[in-house]
What we know:
By secondary structure, this protein is of the alpha+beta class. Helices cover 42% and strands 22% of the residues.
Amino acid sequence: MPRLDAFMLRPEQIHPVVRIAHRQQGGLVISDRIIFDHELVLIVKGKGQWKIRDRSYDYTTNDLLFVPPFVPHSFHDEGRSPPEHLAIHFDFAAMPPSASEVLADRAPYRVRLTHGLQIATQRALFTGHRWARDLVRVVAEQNNGGVVEVAQSSMRLAGVLLEMLSERKDERTLADPIILRQQARVNVVVDHMRENLSGTIDHRALEQVSKLSTSRLQALFREVTGYPPLDYLRRLRVEEARRLLADQQLSVKEIAALTGFRDTSHLSKVFRRIDGLSPARYRGALLAGRQEK
């Protein structure tokens, strides 16, 4: 079996590229196949069975199905009533893999989302569900051909995908116990970071908290959050610094001490790297926005 290249993607990196979007009447009958991108299939009318990863499911009107790339699957419509479905082929982002490359030339790959997030294989919606309405509009906008409409279709699809990530109610989205254990171990370390932002936190301290070696903890953090642990810690500190900058009674020097930076210069350097501006500029813009409001 060919090796799958794995691409880690954080939720904020989801900027989908729509490849094909169509609405089709007639039976959904497709023999075993694989696709080279991702696909959402909304059953507008009809019922039948489909098979994915050697598991079979029944589907019916208003069901939303998700098909990842390079996974064998098939559809068999019952044909008892005039069926109709819409299908949207997409990439989660222009990279990975390159949206401009020829689909048939892609090597097997999968996109893995950080923080243990997954999209359900199948979701039961209802007539008039907002996701269904948005997907219908994605198809219409994509096929209209206008530059603005195509951009709108991608933004609309991004909204649906992000909401699908936040929904954890579907009984067919069985959480991988390994992912849950990984998330739990990372959460212990993150809680320690949040509780000790003003203190000294280094690799040795994180080894003691996690009971893992530095190399294993690095790999685990990248798997779950998309960042190595000390980089994640810096982002937590900048996040807290942003919150404290809203308090005009606190000096930047005090905020640096409260968030674990050596001094104002260190805070400014990291703040600029992450947010693109200095703490003073951020505070100025924040206060100006308040006055304008």
